[in-house]
Amino acid sequence: MLTQEGSRARQDRFRSQLEQMGIDAAVITDRREIYYLTGLLLCDYPNFPFPAMLYLETGGPTWLAAHTDEGEAVVDERVTYPPNVLYTMSPDLMALLNEAVAKKLDGVKHAPRLGWQEEAMPKLLADTLDRTIAPTEWVSLDAMIADMQKKKDPDEIDLLRTAAKAGLAAYTAAQKAIAPGVNELDVLSAGQRAARDAVGENIFHGGDYQCAELGGWARDKTIDAGQLYIIDAHTAYHGYWSDLCRTWSVDGSPTDLQVQVFQHIKGILEDVPYVVKPGGKGTELFAMIDARIRELPGFEDVGLIHHAGHAVGIRPHEMPDLNRDREGIFEVGNVFSCEPGAYSDDLNHGIRLENTFHITEDGVEILSEYPIEIVARK
Length: 378
Hints:
The chain is an alpha+beta fold. It is 34% helix and 22% strand. The chain has 9 helices and 18 strands. It has a 6-stranded mixed β-sheet with strand order 4-3-2-1-7-8. Strand 7 (113-116), helix 4 and strand 8 form a beta-alpha-beta unit. The chain is globular, with a radius of gyration of 23 Å.
């Protein structure tokens, strides 16, 4: 989990930002940001997301309203609502949270400028806040929080490393399962079990497990000789995500063209730590990768047909991304994936490779060191 020390440091930085913005109090309603600021993971993906609310006075106390008082949280007070009746989940969880919040807000001092998550605030809670603390102005915090989250703290890096470890364990098992006539669901099951075994608990592992396709969830479908199997998988560990990709020949006998394109894409990915620098632009990295792909015979007019990568963290896709149509600036502390790919019917169907990188003061570290081979290891 995120550490209490790390959460206090983030909360201190958050308060400092609120003070600079002249905000009196902040309301956080997305469970991911509640975790980010308090260290309490209320419900890890894909578990049921019980609603919750964190209230933080810029120069005063904090309290958290949630369905449970279990677990440690960097807050001054906990408020709970009953999530079930004799273990039958209540159908009106937001109303129950709102009732607990309204009771707690009774008597809370007026907050002239209230910070809120515009993307995540339910109207029911907003109406209660408006009626009780009567803010004169509502100030969106979404952009400020997203900017904070671009730079990862040490406890976040530890979780990202473990997420990557679990994802790579899944790849070790998945490639052993790949063979002509095997069902895609069986390959996915092998990966899921290995990811769980790697960390000793039930976690989410899934993503693109369709063979000879650009992407998509695993199907009840067998894989065939001659095909290329792109597995672009997400793994969630204690609220943090890895996003990694490898491509294997189903029958272990790739064509000359498949090998040629594979080695070219591999070379692009291996160059990433040497070309990314703090202050560099995501659009420029995209353009470089696109140009490199267009060097391949048959790809001169195609290039890269999707983004070149994106940051990862408490969400599987974060900013900055490596995009043709949206700018992102690299900073020390960013953790990002890069995923060059090339696709054609002649390849049956394509090759995509992806690693995760951490920009440090000393350079770019690979968080997902793992063999890059077109023939699966059995």
